[in-house]
Amino acid sequence: xxxxxxxxxxxxxxxxxxxxxxxxxxxxxxxxxxxxxxxxxxxxxxxxxxxxxxxxxxxxxxxxxxxxxxxxxxxxxxxxxxxxxxxxxxxxxxxxxxxxxxxxxxxxxxxxxxxxxxxxxxxxxxxxxxxxxxxxxxxxxxxxxxxxxxxxxxxxxxxxxxxxxxxxxxxxxxxxxxxxxxxxxxxxxxxxxxxxxxxxxxxxxxxxxxxxxxxxxxxxxxxxxxxxxxxxxxxxxxxxxxxxxxxxxxxxxxxxxxxxxxxxxxxxxxxxxxxxxxxxxxxxxxxxxxxxxxxxxxxxxxxxxxxxxxxxxxxxxxxxxxxxxxxxxxxxx
Length: 333
Fold this sequence. Notes:
Elements: E1 2-8, E2 11-16, E3 26-36, H1 38-45, E4 60-68, E5 80-83, E6 86-87, H2 93-96, E7 107-108, E8 120-124, E9 128-130, H3 136-139, H4 142-154, E10 162-166, H5 170-181, E11 185-190, E12 206-209, H6 214-221, E13 226-231, H7 236-245, E14 246-254, H8 267-272, E15 275-278, H9 284-295, E16 305-310, H10 314-320, E17 326-330
């Protein structure tokens, strides 16, 4: 079977490997679509905090059940599914309290362990979620949507809030959708004008240019600051912008991942009495809620996808990814 591997920064290979077999409690899946995540792209570029090599990338995917191992019920062959790719230890303090998304020994597929970019893979059955009638291409978008949905819930976004999402990539776009569905008025900021185009289809009230015009753009639309700022880039400057744009007694949620440090005047947290949240991964309930949101027709995710490639062209897909919101690999090709 074909498998995609990042062997070192800047190098992607499509190689042939053996098809795995499901063990007890596992299912064998035939991957249908896979999304290139920002962390996959960071591994490719050598900028991702958790990267190691060689690595099979991928944790955003849809698949079809091929075979169930011993002890698995309710996942019949042919069922279209997605899966939770965050493997938790089950015994650390976070896991014991039910916060398995931020397990102290977390291993996310495509990051700390090999990912889903193979024609076939095995998964523990309890991590596999039925697609609820959502088509396979859209189902590959559930995991990043669940991350953003979780972040918006962390900040307790509610009806009437004014929300600023910094970063108009996939995670930022999904955060804008989630905040809009929660009843907020949403603005999105980015330094790339192309990424700010078409956001009105996601329920966005307006856009703000990044860079030198950011402060003036914020002042023009929210002179008192935003109730919630979602940082979805993972850069020191954008975290600083999120803090600066937040209103007094506002909430800031950090979902972007980076590995640079920031010289930060922390007293602003006290001055504004800010609530600052980290948000990592997602929980089972987030996946279920997102699948229900999509399946109910409340949101159209088609505009999120900017490019698709057959799996054989994975090197070209990685080279071009990042210029749009979401690049998908077609594993059925």
